Predict the 3D structure of the following.
Amino acid sequence: MIRLLEVTKTYGTGTSALSDISLSIDKGEFVFIVGPSGSGKTTLLRLLIRDMTPTRGTITLNNVDIGKLSNKKVPQLRKQIGVVFQDLKMLMDRTIYENILLPLEMAGMDHKEAEQKVHKILTQVGIEEHMEKFPIQLSGGELQRAAIARALVFSPEILLADEPTGNLDNTTSWEIVKLLQDINKLGTTVIMATHNLEVVNSLDKRVVELEKGKMTRDTKKGPSTSSGQDVKETKHVKKPEEKEDKKDLEKKPEVEEKDSSINLPAGRQDSEQGKHKQ
Amino acid sequence: MKTTSTAWKHIRRSPYQALAAILIMMLTFLVVSMFTMVIVSSSQIISYFEASPKVTAFFKEDTQQPTIDALADSLKATGKVSSIKFVSKEEAFRRYSNWNKDNPVLLDLVNADVLPPSLEISTYKIEDLDSIAKVLKDSSYVSDVVFLKDVVSTLISWTDAMRKIGLVLVIILVIVSIFVMTTIIGFKISQKREEIEIMRLLSATNWYIRWPFLLEGMFYGFLGAMLGWLLTFGLTLYARPFLLSFVREIPLMTLSPYFLLALLGLEIGFALMLGAIASFLAVLRYLK
């Protein structure tokens, strides 16, 4: 599905963001891109949506060379790839509903059909009650869900999530990861850039590790670091069930394969109630 | 529909910039409308004179009717004359009374006896007025010859000058309008840079982003042209009584509704084009 062949990205300043990356991601995979800040995670994701082009190498999506796409065809590519940006990129002067409706409007979808789609996706990510609020009125977790909803509104084949748990507390982070897992189970390829080792270590998913722009590891299933066979022991993973507050038990991530619907943990609203600014 | 509402939102959220854009367009179209009115009116007056080239000969007090008739016959014989009308003392007084019916002082001072009889002679061609006027001036019975060719020539040169001045002024104003509108819309694009970037990342096409700005420019043009036209229309209505009394029997067609609507339509078309050009320049300059 996605193929990167000896991809190098060097910025105008001479800084090398990625160097000779070759990678292949199949349909339906869940891949963590890990590495410290500045390792090239975000650059990799930006290359995938043609926000920039590689200095060398080729990136293909379904056998189409993204680097050679004409500018006119870039919007079409971006409809196939949903993105949850690190800084969310919500339009602050529009409601959550309007933010999620925007990509559908841009695609020229019939208004009624678009409305139904937005309602459905908002229900799926569990923030339907906040749809008339502005981004500034939502908590971090709710905003993250809104960003995921917007990324999913086209039912894309691929979902890129750049540090989706970046500024969230442990409980909310797990809820977001659970949501991404559920989306993945429905067949969407999920590529999540993160340096949240707790999450990576707890889920047995493919891990691609970058360091200073170079790929240092690509394991089909495994912990977050190449030397991390003991990661789970050395870095204590605070899964929700280990928290003192027993209420949070309800938020324990459900990773069983049989769970194929996007359903949010029941306690999500309780945990975020206090964060609402209004 | 969405594009229109986005454009309207852009306008509503920066009312002073919108006002500046509308006012500069209004000024441009006020000048366009006023010069058009003046030039069209002058052209109509000239056409009126040119269509009926006329020379009027006033006879001395004691001139007898047969003498006048003989002179008229000799003029007809030249073949250059399209019509000759004899205006008696009584007819002259009737016309004078009609023109000055609102001014009793002028009416009291004049009676039919003081007004001379006259011949109004029209030629087929304006060039023939010279030779006819010469024949009349040479006649010993003619006291005065009123010859409109000089008036027409002066009017033509004035209209030409006005047309040139108007054209230069309109060109300057059009250029200023385009620059002002480009700057205002460019400024708005800069303000929305982040929003535009997000839209692009969310699969917006270039035209999805451009259209609201183009519509905004066209809206400024449309409103400016409407206001400029309305102001000119109001001023013309206000000045109409004075203009009509000034030109007397010359039909001023400028207030014909067809002419006014045609002018409005042309101006709106031109304004929409100007707005679109200005916005497009801004989009090319600021939306790379």
Observations:
- Chain A touches chain B through 20 residues (CB under 8 Å).
- The longest strand of chain A covers residues 16-25.
- Residues 226-278 of chain A have pLDDT under 50 and may be disordered.
